[in-house]
Amino acid sequence: MSRFRFVSCLMILWAINPLASVSQKKPIVLHPQNPHYFLYQGKPAILITSAEHYGAVLNLDFDFITYLDELKSKGLNLTRTFSGAYVEPQGAFNISENVLAPSSGRFICPWPRSNVPGYPNGGNKFDLKRWDVAYFSRLKDFVAAAENRGIIVELALFCPFYEDVQWKLSPMNAINNINAVGAIPKDDVYTLDKHGGLLAIQEEMVRKIVGELKTFDNVIYEICNEPYFGGVKMEWQHHIASLINETEKNLGVRHLISQNIANGSARINNPHPDVSVFNFHYASPPHAVKQNYHLSKVIGDNETGFRGQRDSTYRKEGWEFIMAGGGLYNNLDYSFTATHENGTFVYPEKQPGGGSAALRNQLRYLKDFMYRFDFVKLKPDSLVITGGLAPGARAHVLSETGKQYAFYVLHGNQINLSLGLPAGKYQVEWMDPVTGVYVKKETLQHPGGNAIIISPTYSFDVALRVVKK
Fold first, then answer.
1. What CA–CA distance (Å, rounded) separates 441 from 392?
2. Do 273 and 251 touch, CB atoms closer than 8 A?
3. Any idea what DSSP says for residue 83?
4. How many C-beta atoms lie closer than 10 Å to residue 423's C-beta?
5. In what order do the strands lie in the sheet with 424-431?
6. Among candidates 215, 214, 218, which has minimal Cα distance to 47?
7. Predicted confidence band of residue 18 (pLDDT cuts 50, 70, 90)
8. pLDDT 10s digits, 354-407
9. Distance of CA 63 to CAs 67, 103, 330, 339, 343, Å?
10. Which domains does the chain show, CATH number per domain?
11. How would you classify the pairing of strands 47-51 and 328-332?
12. Radius of gyration of the chain (CA)
């Protein structure tokens, strides 16, 4: 074919479909070989982070570039943010400098302001029949900046109203919009029958957001944060999941949908077929993974907190959850604020959780530890440890029998671990989860049967990597 004819063909293709010559990015998906993990940009992925309190987009004072740069510098690959249908008042839940509680006049959401004054946190009321161009520009800039840094955005579309103080700030409340919708109690907002005209507004918001973000490969849509509070109905959640799926079918794209199930743990019954990620909060010990591993979907722990401020608490929660077979962990990090987007805010003792640069480093060590394995081939193993755990200690093991083993041991300070291993030559490496240093390495030539692996001394917890050479 001549150069002229080749160029002419390209021009015809471009006229028919302007995207024909552009390689299409594929959104993050469940890994086809092991759907307990992700596949992103052609590579297996586990999502691990310590991230801000969900206001990166809706809080105009928050410099999300500085924030995302900090996550990237620590090797973390996830952030979670709220759409703006829900916002908090300052002082809520005893959170100082709460990113989810913008200053007066600094809140932005999918709907623009009207010319009618009266929003209680500054500015005019909202018009739910129009879209705020500036909001969607900011949302897309945020997602694009995250995408450029290899960071996945889990976008929580909705959130229940825990108390009237949050409902009184929502644009969906009739007192805050000019559209005469939402004149209902807070517990009726997310239903199919008592919604006071809000269901159509919610549906349009979902369609709009999904349409605006259709070209991004780093988005997961979470239906609703903590729907087990505030009267959120399961039928409504399923309706939103189906709506996302139907909208994306028409757009020719498919992003993952996540659902928040419970605090702690619960067994998932009758899961919606369009949901691929099931999230829990405060999931330590990680019973939620064991209870639902049979679903062959990603099990996540996407909010921590309310257990003090020690880094060790949330480091151990992350290690236990991922080493039990989870595929997503997000520590709620209160050191990120709109005045300290680099994560250096020194929060007061009343803060309901933790977060720090040190903890972010420790979670990077967890991610790096897992990425040293061919982790797609790993699965929980309750049989390989045959003895040697210290009294009160608990252990989690992921393995590909006879080839690779990942161990995490919590409590105690030294163990002589008995492992049932097939015959072979193994590389044995003990890692300190606090420093990321491999403090002891040895080669094991094993005839088969039980092998005694002697740990170094440690404080709180230790990780072990055993790989056949």
1. 26
2. no
3. -
4. 11
5. 379-380, 394-400, 404-410, 461-468, 424-431, 438-446
6. 218
7. very low
8. 999 999 999 999 999 999 999 999 999 999 999 999 889 999 999 999 999 999
9. 7, 14, 20, 9, 12
10. 24-375 (3.20.20.80), 381-468 (2.60.40)
11. parallel
12. 24
